[in-house]
Amino acid sequence: MGADLGEQELDALKAQPVRGIIRSGYEDARPSEWLAQRTGATAVLVPQTIGATPAARDLASLYDAMLDSLLGALPAGGQ
C-alpha cells in the first residue's frame, strides 16, 4: 500500500486536509485506514445497499445510515 502515493501527495493532503475518506463495505478497509493514519482524516464506512450494515434495513434506513456515517466523520459542530 502507498506505493503509488508519494510523500509529495501526502504533504498536499496534510496542507489541505480532507474531512473523511469514504469506502463501501465491499472494499478492503486497509487502504483507507492507511491513508487516514497518514493524513489525520477519518476513514468512513458508508453502506452501499440495504442490508450492508445492521442499520440499513430498508431504503429509508439506508439513507439514514449513509447520512449518519458521513456526519459522524465531521468534527463536533459539523464543520
Describe it:
- The protein is mostly helical and 79 residues long.
- The protein is 43% helix and 10% strand.
- The protein has 3 helices and 2 strands, in the order H-E-H-E-H.
- It has a two-stranded parallel sheet with strand order 1-2.
- The radius of gyration is 14 Å and the shape is elongated.
- The model has no long low-confidence stretch (mean pLDDT 85).
Quick rundown:
The chain is built from three helices and two strands, in the order αβαβα. The chain has helices at residues 7-15, 29-39, 59-72, and strands at residues 20-23, 42-45. The longest helix has 14 residues, at 59-72.
Query: Would you count the extended β strands for me?
Result: 2
- Please estimate the helix content: 40-55%
Please describe the biggest sheet, giving its number of strands, its sense, and whether it closes into a barrel: 2 strands, parallel
Structural class: mainly alpha
Strand-helix topology:
Elements: H1 7-15, E1 20-23, H2 29-39, E2 42-45, H3 59-72
Parallel strand pairs: 1-2
Keywords for this entry:
79 residues; mainly alpha; 3 helices
